[in-house]
Amino acid sequence: MEVLLGVGVAASLGFSDFIGGSAGRRTGPLRAITGIQFVGAAVIGIYVLVASQPLGSVRVTVLAAIGGAALSLGAVFMYTGLSWGRMSVMAPVTAAAVAVFTFAAGLVRGERPSQLALAGVGLAIVAVILISRPAPAAHVSSAPAGTPRRISLGAELALSIAAGASFATFQTTMGEIGGEAGVAPLLVVRAVGGTLSLLILLVVWRRAGAPRLRMPRRATVVPVLVAGLLLLVAHALLIEALSLGLLSIVGPITSLSPAFTVIPARIFLHEHISRTQVLGMVLATGGLVLVALG
User: Fold this and answer.
1) For residues 56 and 64, what is the distance between their CA atoms, to the nearest angstrom?
2) Host H or E run for residue 28
3) How many Cβ atoms sit within 10 Å of the Cβ of residue 135?
């Protein structure tokens, strides 16, 4: 079951990254991040009130706050790269970093997956790395219309690794919380993440000379709402997956989200998918089968 939940997390994250990254290209990454965070906070807040679900102990709240801070920092790195760089580079490299960091964190925590599951995880990590290889220069698409500026491959890789480390920290804290507290800790996660994103946005706004604020357009609001809901679904599934399985298994599976970002980027943004990336997707399927059998 944790394998299926992990795939659900990957799908939700991948589509959320694509939709949110597209919104960030229209309104700016920080605005998109802040909107996505508060959409999730509003939805989970309503649920917690209606269900009268407690937030949990002090330990759970502190871990959720740390997770929210890490998630917010990772989102800043990720959406900056998605908005100003190539989705087909940012999403896979970030996922590769998450896979490696969560696998290592699980082993450090004392987890010992079966040999077959370990083989599947290893294959999945190799698959993510293959998917992470950028397209040859001759096939790299030009910047889409409306993109503020392009960033170099080195900057894309640096942002991806930083985002991966931050997201791995978030997953580790969620694994420490477990599933007993339900989804209520996500309210703390979103509240902390949204507040930090808003503070960063205010600092950037003031340094830009405090320009006149404009109402967001519908073409931007709708993608932010959808991305926020998808991200909330992903994190709810993640909590359930981590309560049933090991971080060293679930983490790398959720890192297969690039397949759900790269393919839409190829269809709608005409970003090139190399044969190596296709091979990586095939290996990823094989890795999932081995993990499921293990």
Assistant:
1) 10
2) none
3) 17
pLDDT digits (tens, 9 = 90+) for 12-27: 877 887 787 777 767 7
Q: What is the pLDDT of residues 153-196, one digit of tens each?
A: 778 888 888 988 998 998 888 888 876 677 788 888 888 888 88
Position 38 pLDDT exceeds 80? yes
The answer to whether 278 and 31 have CB atoms below 8 angstroms apart is no
pTM, full prediction: 0.72
Helix (H) or strand (E) holding 107: helix 87-108
Question: SS3 for the chain, per residue?
Answer: CHHHHHHHHHHHHHHHHHHHHHHHHHHCHHHHHHHHHHHHHHHHHHHHHHHCCCCCCHHHHHHHHHHHHHHHHHHHHHHHHHHHCCHHHHHHHHHHHHHHHHHHHHHHCCCCCCHHHHHHHHHHHHHHHHHHCCCCHHHCCCCCCCCCCCCCHHHHHHHHHHHHHHHHHHHHHHHHHCCCCCCCHHHHHHHHHHHHHHHHHHHHHHHCCCCCCCCCCHHHHHHHHHHHHHHHHHHHHHHHHHHHCCHHHHHHHHCCCCHHHHHHHHHHHCCCCCHHHHHHHHHHHHHHHHHHHC
Instruction: Tell me if 35 sits within 8 A of 79, measured CB to CB.
Output: no
Residues 180 and 60 sit within 8 Å (Cβ to Cβ): no
Say how many CA atoms lie within 13 Å of 240 toward its Cβ. 16
Confidence band, pLDDT 50/70/90 cuts, at residue 288: low
pLDDT over 90, % of the chain: 3
